[in-house]
Amino acid sequence: MPESRQDVPPRGSFRLAAPAGWGRLPHGFVLDRHQHRDGLLLWAAAGALATTTERGTWVAPANRITWTPPGFEHSHRSFGHTDVRLVVIPRDLCGDLPRRPSACAVTPLLRETFLALTDRPETRPGAYERLRAVLVDEFAETSEPSLHLPEPTDDRLRAVTDRLHADPGQNTTLAVLGRAAGASERTLSRLFNTELGMSFHRWRTMLRVHHALIHLTEGRSVTATATTCGWSNPSSFIDAFTEVVGQTPGRHQADLRSRPG
């Protein structure tokens, strides 16, 4: 099987032996916008990896795998020292996978299959293809609490989300944000639901969780992360984080420390 260089970042230590590869990326590594002719499954076995497309951003810690279909423009950013594992899915095998970028929880089978594909050479003809078929089947069947943060196209809504991106911890009301954006609270509330598919409160919670994942990956304490990201107390932060990510902030940090990276 010929090696493809389409998925190799320009910097950092990275190895690709199609259909799978791995790399160790430093904190803050950015891979600019690009696209692939095939699909791509990505897993950060340590650290966290953000994938951004025109449809928004997914931040994937070690308990998430992200999927980018063929032809979708996207970029990546690493948080912490990130151990990235990737598996290329040929275009003709993508029929059972989502047609839009998405993510799923890392099941034990997904984890072990990813490691088998990326940690050891192929010793028997066809072994990679058989393992990859298992990976595709398991990903297609696995649901997740989504870590997707959609982004708007409406100029008024973008003015609001840009301000929140700049300072996720602010507690400015939608009415006040609307006055600065030239739109009423009612109009913005409607736009959040129709364009982004969630309420203003839910979108801001997702934004804060994204930033919390980054702070926790960088080693900031749970209490400091809660304060910086806008929660009034650690308990409310822990509840929100657990509901979205599927594990507590403390468990997330413990998992990070237990993985070599």
From TrEMBL:
Top-level taxon: Bacteria
Keywords: Transcription, Transcription regulation
Entry-linked PROSITE patterns: HTH_ARAC_FAMILY_2
Domain HTH araC/xylS-type: 158-255
InterPro entries (UniProt xref): Homeodomain-like_sf, HTH_AraC, RmlC_Cupin_sf
Record's protein name: AraC family transcriptional regulator
